[in-house]
Amino acid sequence: MVLLYDPAAPREVGCIPASRNLDTLAGKVVGFIDNAKPNFDHLVDELAKRLVERHGVARIVKRRKPSASIPAEPAIVNELAAQCDLVITGSGD
After folding, report:
1. Distance CA 61, CA 63 (A)
2. Which residues, at least 6 apart from 31, have a Cβ–Cβ distance to it below 8 Å?
């Protein structure tokens, strides 16, 4: 008898409600999740500066993951969800 194992994780199926749209960035709090890849911090710093200067963003919150290959810790996700009106994730290099 031969046993075969599927290494793929099971897929979650279901509906995720759409998030609300923002009419403006003025006065909003924007969060960033840095994926720990080289240069993403430089991109975030410049983008954050422009969001504040050009669009009136009230505050920037930055959090960094330990590695690009793993998801953000639930505590980070929950913190950003509680504090921010918008969260941007990205990749560097």
Report:
1. 7
2. 60, 61, 62, 63, 80, 83, 84, 86, 87, 88
Which of 19-43 are b and which e, b meaning 16 or more Cβ less than 10 Å from the residue's Cβ?
eeeeeebeebbbbbbbbbeeebeee
Structure tokens at 58: 């009230």
Q: What single-letter DSSP state applies at residue 64?
A: E
Measured in residues, the chain has a length of: 93
- Cβ contact 35:91 at 8 Å: yes
Query: What pLDDT, in 10s, does the model give residues 56-88?
Result: 999 999 999 988 888 899 999 999 999 999 999
d(CA 80, CA 23): 20
Q: How confident is the model at residue 33 (pLDDT cuts 50, 70, 90)?
A: very high
